[in-house]
Design a protein that fits this description.
With 791 residues, the protein is mostly beta strands. The protein is 5% helix and 52% strand. The strands form 9 sheets. It has a 22-stranded antiparallel β-barrel. The chain has a 5-stranded mixed sheet with strand order 3-8-9-6-7. It has a 3-stranded mixed sheet with strand order 14-13-18, with no helix packed on it. Strand 10 and strand 11 form a beta hairpin.
């Protein structure tokens, strides 16, 4: 970590030294200091040839405020460009939409982005176009990258940030490896927070108080330090609505997230911009990630009889548990970052340095019963990461626009796990069983990248991008019997693996301004997701090394504007073939989940979006996706509980140790967690009630088709199609100083589980036909009141 601090200081000092002769210059007249800088690259906006000042904030004009779409800026190409000029499918969720829909965390974004879905857990598993799985290895990278103010979180997903004091969220779809790196084979969530404003002191307050003991409290203090510098302190405290009740312990689960961010902006000249950011977050869950309701079990089985002690009869809507052991989870994350931008006139040089520290741990009772079968299933993570990026970005040139850079990433992780209990043996005598493990892992990555836009004519452009990198990943896991245990539950296999892999990814494309209101593009991309060591494998029957995931994708799109540039209607078609898809599946031989490779996955589909301001008072955001995602041939997984015959493509295999197991070829089955259809809609209407007050109304809806959660195509392990509806109405002052509202989410109280799976303790208890589920904040109706104020 000390190395990163030295790099940060060295870069800052070097760039500040170059700026010293200009130190006395002020922000240019006519430039709003509030728009002076963000963490996005301080480069000109490329809006089809219209040059703007370097200090224009890419987030200054959001979809909620922009008079026309040319003012809606994104940084999908690490340059500030109009959303209608970027040759990639991108959904922008503005600060206003986040607040209107009550989107307070990463998972909530699934209600605003059709291509985005999520599987709950620690860490959360994000998917774009169906691509992405939970990570069951400490060295595994996510398929969907999260970038906050220019800093990639990498595999520190357990500290996924709250969405507070955010200017906008850009969701980029398809492989984004060329510019954003190794953990973006499915796409990127690019989050830009609000920059400090040197022009005024301000306090902003937001509060929600909802049913099921839920609340959100947010506060912002903006404090000018000088004419060209300011501080911005943002804090948030959110409690998710209660979803799971433990009948044995007579208590609801609790999920809280507390966060703080301090930003310092210094822009002494029109050429130099410095952004310093410190952040902290704490996640606390009273019910851990091992406490999940059972929704199906065999009548008369041991599991069913144990559940009946709490009066539980598993049903599809069950949100009650019956466990006697403690459960809980906490995660603390701290980060420091420094971005320094210097404009040399035609090129901007940027340095982004970041260090992060994540400490997380918890778990608990994992047997779903009120007896000690597996009452302890806990882990602890101590993860440190550091990264350094140097980047050069061109101004809006006549023929060539480019961005290129060098990137370094390093992480170390110490992971401890303990699983123990007193399984009921045939003679009925409880004997302690279990094992403890220690995993030490390291990741190191170097990369160089570049992407250029060639302007062959005033309307026709070519795109070429390349990234070359070197990944070095290693992990070592040692296991031993838990203290006092006579035998292990899942084995004592030691894992030791390392892979050093050199890779390249590229992007080629063309785009053409077909008319003044329409742009078409075609891109071809080879992406990359880094390798991993299967460091949590319980047996030696699975491969130690997880191969890199390679997506080969093409996309064709059309972006159009209507109604005097107030409405955008965009569409795209796409096809992605992934080789060595990194997947998580249930291994019946060890009764555990295994992280490994599926030979291939094919994803194809189409998207349509319409957004903008239909009238002065009415804003619309509509999105729809058809996504056909299936596993390729040769991917063998454990047979589904109800499909155990040869007619179900289920066969018996003999493991190297002589044991037998049943497996099925998942070829042609839907990708886990990926709906075929999804539609999102949000509309906001305001109306002047008098000279001082405005009426406000917002409504949103999400339709999602059936989702499968088992690679072996088990109809029991699914959700049906469903619709979630929300609304918010109220009044606010005409000058925007305050507002009072009432809101509702999941108004029809549609019971929608986030994830379903075979109950892990079912096999141990002799009941293989049993399933459990997890719930999220929107799995139940929530109503409440909301208040906003700024001073």
């Amino acid at each position: 970590m000390r190395t990163s601090y030295l790099i940060m200081l060295a870069c800052s000092s070097a760039l500040m030294t170059m700026a010293t002769p200009l130190y006395a210059q002020e922000t240019p007249v006519g430039i709003d200091p509030a728009q002076a800088s963000t963490a996005a690259p301080a480069v000109p906006a490329n809006t089809k040839g219209n040059k703007t000042s370097r200090t224009t904030d890419a987030g200054a004009a959001s979809p909620d405020k922009a008079a026309n779409l040319s003012e809606v800026m994104v940084t999908a190409t690490k340059r500030a460009e109009s959303i209608q000029s970027v040759p990639v499918t991108v959904t922008v969720v503005s600060a206003a939409q986040l607040q209107n829909q009550g989107l307070n965390n990463i998972q909530d974004l699934t209600a605003a982005v059709p291509a985005l879905s999520a599987q709950s857990g620690q860490p959360i598993a994000l998917q774009i176009r169906g691509i992405g799985v939970p990570q069951n290895a400490q060295t595994a990278e996510p398929s969907v990258g999260i970038v906050v103010d220019g800093v990639s979180l990498g595999n520190a997903m357990a500290s996924a940030p709250q969405l507070f004091d955010v200017a906008r969220v850009e969701v980029l779809e398809g492989p984004q490896d060329t510019l954003f790196g190794r953990s973006t084979s499915a796409g990127v969530l690019n989050i830009t927070t609000n920059a400090p404003d040197p022009s005024k002191a301000e306090v902003i307050v937001h509060a929600d108080q909802g049913s099921r003991d839920s609340y959100t409290h947010q506060a912002v203090l903006n404090l000018p330090v000088s004419t060209y510098s300011a501080l911005r302190l943002s804090v948030a405290d959110t409690r998710q609505p209660d979803t799971v009740y433990n009948d044995y312990q007579h208590s609801w689960g609790e999920n809280r997230n507390q966060s703080a961010r301090l930003r310092y902006l210094w822009q002494p000249t029109d050429k130099l911009t410095v952004n310093l950011i410190a952040d902290y977050s704490r996640i606390f869950e009273k019910v851990g990630f091992t406490d999940f309701p059972v929704y199906q079990s065999t009548p008369g089985s041991t599991l069913s009889n144990l559940l009946s002690l709490c009066g539980l009869v598993p049903t599809q809507d069950n949100n009650r548990t019956c466990t006697d052991g403690p459960s809980g989870y906490t995660a603390k994350s701290e980060g420091l970052s420094a971005q320094v931008d210097y404009d040399f006139g035609g090129t901007t040089l940027s340095s982004i340095t970041a260090v992060r520290h994540l400490r997380a741990g918890g778990g608990g009772d994992a047997d779903s019963t009120p007896v000690d079968i597996v009452n302890t299933n806990t882990n602890n993570i101590n993860l440190r990461t550091e990264s350094q990026e140097f980047r050069v970005t061109s101004s809006d040139n006549d023929f060539l626009d480019y961005v290129g850079g060098l990137y370094y990433y390093h992480s170390t992780n110490i992971y401890n796990a303990l699983e123990e209990g007193e399984p009921l043996l045939e003679d009925g005598l409880p004997i302690l069983a279990g094992q403890a493990s220690l995993t030490q892992s390291r990741e190191r990555s170097y990369a160089g990248y570049g992407e250029a836009t060639l302007k062959f004519t005033p309307t026709f452009r070519g795109i070429i991008g390349l990234r070359y990198g070197d990944d070095d990943v290693s992990a070592n896991t040692v296991r031993q019997l838990a203290p006092g245990a006579l035998f292990p539950i899942n084995g004592l296999a030691a894992i030791n693996g390392r892979i050093d892999n050199k890779y390249n990814s590229f992007r080629l494309g063309v785009q053409d301004d077909l008319t003044s209101n329409a742009m078409g593009y075609i891109t071809f991309t080879k992406g990359y997701k880094g390798p991993a060591v299967n460091d949590q494998a319980a047996t030696n029957n699975v491969p130690v090394l997880v191969k890199p995931e390679i997506p080969i994708a093409w996309e064709a799109g059309l972006k159009t504007t209507w109604l005097d540039d107030r409405i955008g209607i965009n569409g795209s078609i796409y096809h992605t073939h992934l080789e060595n898809f990194q997947a998580l599946y249930f291994d019946p031989a060890s009764a555990t989940f295994v992280y490994g490779n599926a030979p291939s996955v094919t994803v194809k589909g189409a998207e349509l979006s319409a957004f903008g301001r239909l009238t002065t008072n009415f804003t619309l955001n509509l999105g729809a996706i058809y996504n056909d995602a299936k596993y390729g041939n040769g991917y063998f997984v454990g047979c589904a509980a109800n499909f155990q015959t040869a007619a179900d493509r289920c066969t018996t295999v003999v493991n190297p140790n002589g044991s037998t197991a049943k497996e099925a070829n998942a070829s042609g089955n839907p990708l886990v967690g990926s709906p075929k259809w999804k539609v999102t809609l949000n509309g906001t209407y305001t109306h002047a009630l008098n000279a001082d007050l405005d009426g406000f109304a917002s409504a949103d809806g999400v339709y999602t088709s059936r989702i499968y959660f088992d690679q072996a195509y088990d109809p029991t392990d699914t959700t049906g199609s469903h619709v979630l509806l929300g609304a918010k109405i109220g009044v606010r002052s005409h000058d925007g100083r305050w507002g009072v509202y009432i809101y509702g989410r999941n108004l029809t109280d549609e019971r929608v589980p986030q994830f379903r799976f075979v109950t892990p303790s079912g096999t141990l208890l002799g009941d293989s036909n049993t399933y459990s589920q997890t719930f999220g904040a929107d799995s139940f109706r929530t109503v409440g009141v909301s208040f906003d104020a700024r001073f």
